[in-house]
Amino acid sequence: MSWKDAAEPVLTRMPTVRRPEGHVPFKRKLAWTAAILMVYFFLTNINPFGLMAGQSSDFFGQFRSILAGEHGSLLQVGIGPIVTASIVLQLLGGANLLGLDTNDPRDQVLYQGLQKLLVIIVTALTAAPMVFTGNFLPVDTTVASALGVSTFAVQLIIFAQVFVGGVLILFMDEIVSKWGVGSGVGLFIIAAVSQQIVGGFFSWSAVGQVGFFAGWYGILFGDLTIGSVFTADGLQSLLFEPGNLLALFTTVFIFVVVVYAESVRVEIPLSHARVKGARGRFPVKLIYASVLPMILVRALQANVQFLGQILNRTWQGMPAWLGVYGDQGQPVSGFFYYVNPIQQPQQWMWFLGETAAEPWMIAIRIAIDLTFMIVGGAIFAIFWVETTGMGPEATAQQIQNSGMQIPGFRRNPQVVEKVMERYIPQVTVIGGALVGLLAVMANMLGTVGGVSGTGLLLAVSITYKLYEEIAEEQLMEMHPMMRQMFGE
Amino acid sequence: MSSGQNSGGLMSSAGLVRYFDSEGRDAIRIDPKTVIAFAVLFGVLVQIVSLTI
């Protein structure tokens, strides 16, 4: 008996959001998406009951912008558990250890159930260390005494709330996927990143942080002095704080490169086997696997850093080679320092005197980060293509089923697969590595609002996909005939 | 008329969580409105409890 038979009763009974019956009008889809977005923002503004708000550092640290959610809110865990569960599934599926055939309806049900179960387990595993170890979510002792219970009981209450928030994110994602436009995960990432970018541009000192425009207002009207631009100091304040010209450049650069790269593609010509003159093209895009696999690499790094954080707070005798932590809980040397990706220019620009680390230490750290992102980006892109049915075999089958063929080749899935194998793996690896390189570069140069390079890449590419999807939806609204063609 | 890129399944890369068409017959079905209502009530409830103590 395989594990499938044993797990089937549990996995097939996982609660799911009902599917819409028939076609959902585009306006209704937008309404569902907007409603979920509002609920998301609402929940990020509510502190769990019993929490001493504003007293602790964020467990996710710099990874917050790609993991969404909000520190010290009901959505503390963000999409972290979904991403981590996805990593596990990608690795298991990519190595073909699950033995699930995603074309078989029974296995599809099992896959969905397994996915949901994993997310729920990881939600609990992520929430538990945040609440119970190392004071990431400190208990408000007045609540404990008012209720007449121990601190541990209040911790349990906080844990329950954070856990429910995490599960809600999973179901909100499902609603957007089934009833709305795009995916919930994508929506939450865009929401988190956009919020930071808008803050970075328009914020002013009264709301806590001096944004780009407020900074330049200060420079132009003499409230901030930057000195002569012909001196090193003046140039530095123009490029970094408070001028932020370099950050502006990087942000715009990433936008342009991603939008351009989205349109770079190898087009494989197709013709219909029976209908003469019906032609089509199968595009193999440069960013074929999209930027989403990148979030998996970053999440791996994030999980290593969480482990470091937890060890640092709970293990007094942690050896120095493993990690030495600074005042703000950031690693300053040891293993956890070297595997910590560079998140801002201040972390590596030793010549500006912003960091105490030695240049050779910084060089090792950058080298590790680059290797991790480029190699990891390529590997996860390959897994992604395989597990989401975009690989040579799956696409060959789709082309075959649609009645198309590659002109000049025999009409046979194996033949089409051979042709696809010439392009898809190569393009995937190059695209994945390129995206990894871009992300590291953007992090090193800094971005407006301090969103990480990966966050910015994700936000731009998800928005682009969303735009394509909306355009397609509108086309379908205009011509009901189109719906049949799009296979709905 | 149909061109290769629209033959379905290729748009599945939108999310990290994948949903297929087939679902278990015994699965508990939840209405999306129920989820939204629960989320809003949950938030309001937590806020009210926090304010009262």
Question: Can you characterise this structure?
Answer:
Chain A has 18 helices and 6 strands. In chain A, the strands form 2 sheets. Chain A has a 3-stranded antiparallel β-sheet, sandwiched between helices. Chain A has helices at residues 3-11, 26-44, 64-67, 80-94, 105-132, 141-147, 151-179, 184-202, 212-220, 232-239, 245-263, 292-314, 335-338, 359-387, 392-401, 413-445, 453-478, 480-485; strands at 16-17, 265-272, 279-285, 324-325, 331-333, 404-405. With 488 residues, chain A is mainly alpha-helical. The mean pLDDT of chain A is 87. Helix content of chain B is 40%, strand content 4%. Chain B has 1 helix and 1 strand, in the order E-H. The longest helix of chain B has 21 residues, at 32-52. The model of chain B is unreliable at 1-14 (pLDDT under 50). Chains A and B meet through strand 1, helix 2, helix 4, helix 5 and helix 6 of A and strand 1 and helix 1 of B. Strand 1 (16-17) of chain A pairs parallel with strand 1 (29-30) of chain B, so a sheet runs across the interface.
Reconstruct the topology from this structure.
The complex is a heterodimer of chains A (488) and B (53).
Chain A: H1 3-11, E1 16-17, H2 26-44, H3 64-67, H4 80-94, H5 105-132, H6 141-147, H7 151-179, H8 184-202, H9 212-220, H10 232-239, H11 245-263, E2 265-272, E3 279-285, H12 292-314, E4 324-325, E5 331-333, H13 335-338, H14 359-387, H15 392-401, E6 404-405, H16 413-445, H17 453-478, H18 480-485
Helix pairs in contact in A: 1-5, 2-7, 2-8, 4-5, 4-12, 4-14, 5-7, 8-17, 11-17, 12-14, 12-17, 14-16, 15-16, 16-17
Chain B: E1 29-30, H1 32-52
Q: How would you summarize what this structure contains?
A:
Chain B: Involved in protein export. The function of the beta subunit is unknown, but it may be involved in stabilization of the trimeric complex. Chain A is mostly helical. In chain A, 61% of the residues lie in helices and 5% in strands.
